[in-house]
UniProtKB/TrEMBL annotation:
InterPro entries, alphabetized: Ald_DH/histidinol_DH (IPR016161), Ald_DH_C (IPR016163), Ald_DH_CS_GLU (IPR029510), Ald_DH_N (IPR016162), Aldehyde_DH_dom (IPR015590)
Higher taxonomy: Bacteria, Bacillati, Actinomycetota, Actinomycetes, Mycobacteriales
Top-level EC class: oxidoreductase
Active site: residue positions: E251
Protein name, as recorded: 3-succinoylsemialdehyde-pyridine dehydrogenase
Ubl conjugation recorded as keyword: no
Domain Aldehyde dehydrogenase: residue ranges: 14-475
GO molecular function: oxidoreductase activity, acting on the aldehyde or oxo group of donors, NAD or NADP as acceptor
Keyword Oxidoreductase: yes
Family to which this protein belongs: Belongs to the aldehyde dehydrogenase family.
Native species: Mycolicibacterium vanbaalenii (Mycobacterium vanbaalenii)
Length: 478
């Protein structure tokens, strides 16, 4: 772990095992923090914020962030191998959102923005009894940020929290997901060994105990929680943060819709639905509800079956594989329970629907296509977080929009039509944070990302993402 500038074991000396989800073998062990370790980390972050120039020295912060980028980039290959081993992510995905994309910009873009961000501005003067009152608006860091990370895209999420939080002058206590600690402890080591980031500015606390995350949320020395994870834990954090009025940034679950219009070229478009089982569907923005025009539903299911039977699956080290293992056995069993319930409620399993045959070890589940799904079924409403796609028929564009919005979630979405105009106007009616039209890519360190409704509160990345980590102050002066 990294606590107050030192690379350290847990105070108790305890360690816990890091398991490879593809093989179930023990990769090694990690420091298992208790409340004493967390207390030291929070104290260090508080002190670094209150007593150093980190919060105010823009130039220094930009330099440190670029050092951190260079340090991580110099170990990209080792980080890639580690992510495949501890996350079970297909190596192919590490050349996309799992590693390559965030590595390219998550630290560099915020570092560059330090010199472009509007840190202060003037409001028009107010004349009060003949005296001009001047008013300045300042953006200041929130303070100590507790960052809590899930296991699915751990480096991506860590980098996209650290970059903007540090660029805006905050200090951080970062708690990785228990299942995937090593990418974060690597960053901790690189911070200590290769950057001038002062002691206490970043602290990395690994623990197998979820109470450590909960303790971060209730501690009065922590000003803000930046959380990515499940909607249920997001709710718990919101409630637990209330007594200390925590600033909250929550990136939560999704049940996003891919709308295929009746004029779309199905042969071209339907294969894109296979993206729902990239990384075994453990992607918050996965398009897990496929909305198809009723008039072409039957034919589309046949075409889809062909696509879904042939999705490259299995060993995450195989460069062709898209669908690797789930992160642990609990998650695999959870996915299977969702599928069994869908069957009981009258849905039809067209492809897959069981743990992947041929794998005695590892938490693999088959790419699963489910048809004859109604919007009332649980499988159409619950986030499965597995390689499972439900196909739902709709009557017309209005009906498609209605179904897409008939969800507690609102994270992502996609629309396909021969008419870009039509697809864009449908996209504007979907209540979600990020939308793709005809395969268009929305991702980037400069692109605000987050959810409507129960998919979250606030935005990360982009200028909005920098704002997330700031407080606003007005000074009136004569
Ligand atoms: P999770 O909510 O179970 O855990 C996430 C993190 O929170 C872990 O580090 C965990 O230890 C910690 N935690 C658990 N209970 C806590 C508590 N009471 N207080 C504080 N911290 C606590 O999520 P997960 O299973 O690791 O990740 C999968 C979920 O994350 C999915 O629902 C997925 O959609 C969501 N997710 C969302 C986004 C997004 O940006 N919207 C991105 C990735 C994942």
């Amino acid at each position: 772990m990294l606590i107050d500038g030192g690379l350290t074991e847990a105070l108790s000396g305890a360690r816990y095992e890091n398991i490879n989800p593809a093989t179930e073998s023990v990769l090694g062990t990690t420091a298992d923090a208790g409340t004493g370790d967390l207390d030291a980390a929070i104290a260090a972050a508080r002190r670094a914020f209150d007593e150093t120039t980190w919060a105010t020295d823009h130039e220094f912060r930009a330099r440190c962030l670029l050092q951190l980028h260079d340090a991580i980039a110099s170990e990209e290959d080792q980080l890639r191998a580690e992510l495949v081993a501890e996350v079970g992510t297909p190596v192919k995905v590490t050349y996309m959102g799992q590693l390559r994309w965030p590595l390219a910009e998550a630290f560099r873009w915020p570092a560059q923005m330090i010199s472009n961000f509007e840190w202060e501005r003037c409001l028009p003067d107010r004349d009060i009894k003949g005296v001009a009152h001047h008013r300045d608006v300042f953006k200041e860091p929130v303070g100590v940020v507790g960052a809590i990370i899930p296991w699915n895209y751990p480096f991506e999420i860590t980098a996209n929290k650290l970059g903007p939080a540090l660029a805006t002058g905050n200090t951080v206590v970062l708690k990785p997901a228990p299942d995937t600690p090593w990418n974060a402890t690597r960053i901790g080591r690189l911070i200590a060994e290769c950057t001038d980031i002062p002691a206490g500015v970043v602290n990395i606390v690994t623990s197998s105990d979820r109470r450590i995350g909960a303790a971060l949320v209730t501690d009065p020395r922590v000003d803000m929680i930046s959380f990515t994870g499940s909607t249920q834990v997001g709710r718990d954090i919101m409630a637990a943060g209330a007594p200390t009025l925590k600033r909250l940034f929550l990136e939560l679950g999704g049940k996003s819709a891919m709308i295929v219009c009746d004029d779309a070229d199905f042969a071209k478009v339907l294969p894109a639905s296979g993206a729902a089982c990239i990384h075994a569907g453990q992607t918050c923005t996965s398009l897990t509800r496929l909305l198809l025009p009723r008039s072409r539903y039957g034919a589309a299911i046949e075409q889809l079956a062909d696509v879904w039977r042939n999705i490259p699956r299995g060993d995450p080290n195989d460069p062709k594989v898209l669908c690797g293992p789930l992160v642990n056995s609990v998650q695999r069993d959870r996915v299977d329970n969702h599928v069994r319930r869908a069957e009981q409620q009258g849905a039809r399993i067209v492809v897959g629907g069981k743990p992947m045959p041929g794998f005695d070890r590892g938490y693999f589940y088959e790419p699963t296509l489910i048809a004859d799904v109604t919007t009332a079924m649980d499988i159409a409403r619950d986030e499965v977080f597995g390689p499972v796609l439900v196909a739902i028929p709709y009557d017309d564009d209005d009906d498609a929009v209605r179904i897409a919005n008939d969800s507690i979630y609102g994270l992502a979405g996609a629309v396909y039509s021969e008419s870009t105009q039509r697809a864009k106007s449908i996209a504007r009616r979907v209540r979600a944070g990020v939308l793709s039209v005809n395969g268009g890519m929305w991702y980037g360190a400069d692109a605000p990302f987050g959810g409507f409704k129960s998919s979250g509160v606030g935005r990360q990345n982009g200028v909005e993402g920098l704002e997330t980590y700031t407080e606003t102050k007005v000074v009136g002066w004569v």
